[in-house]
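ok here's DC1 domain-containing protein:
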Amino acid sequence: MEIQHFKHEHPLTLEIMNPSEINSVSCHACKKRCIDLIYSCKVCGGYHLHKSCAELPEKITQHPFHPLHPLPLVFNNGRYACCGCGKWDRTLLYWCRACNFTLSPDCALRPTTKYEFLGEERIRHFLHDHPLDIMALRLVDMAEDDGDVCSACKKSCSGDISYSCQQCPNFKLHRSCAEELPRAIRHRVHPQHPMILRAKDRFFDRECVACQRTDNALTYRCSMCQIEMDPECALAP
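and the structure:
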């Protein structure tokens, strides 16, 4: 099977990675090792793409997070922060050059997904790298410092149904914070662009334009205008 990829002048052929070359061949798009199905250039000999990278859309138009302009796929050599989730990466991105608006492929292709169900009481949330499981409901004296604090709203998890990470004991989310907050909003304070729910960026410590707080782990942010609102203010009537 052959494709003509928009980033390369020659046709690319689908093949199974040779096990003897696993440690020496990297994908030209994401810079990670090639270990499975890859597209290779038979003319150049050293040009390879993961099948998953090669099949990413060349351009996304009318994205809910950035409907103003198309977002072309860019093979990136430097670090960038995804405007959708706030995570830093070094590889592929969808980028509006005019607005300097960036999205990772995961956020770009799953624009409204905050979480996915992995089982009856388990989810994967965009804020965290590991699966989260429902915690047993604990009713304790509110004056007692039990250490169970929601990583999103910074309020106690005591008495509320919450998710926790088995690998990171300090990461917890109220079920309401994990499941009910909208992924993107249009707010009357800032109607020009969507404001996207994302993790607070320690390199971008802006205060909420409504209450001036800076201590929330979650924020609604317009990356183009560099303004933020904490969820409580953003969703207030």
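+1. The chain has four domains: 2-54, 59-109, 115-179, 184-234.
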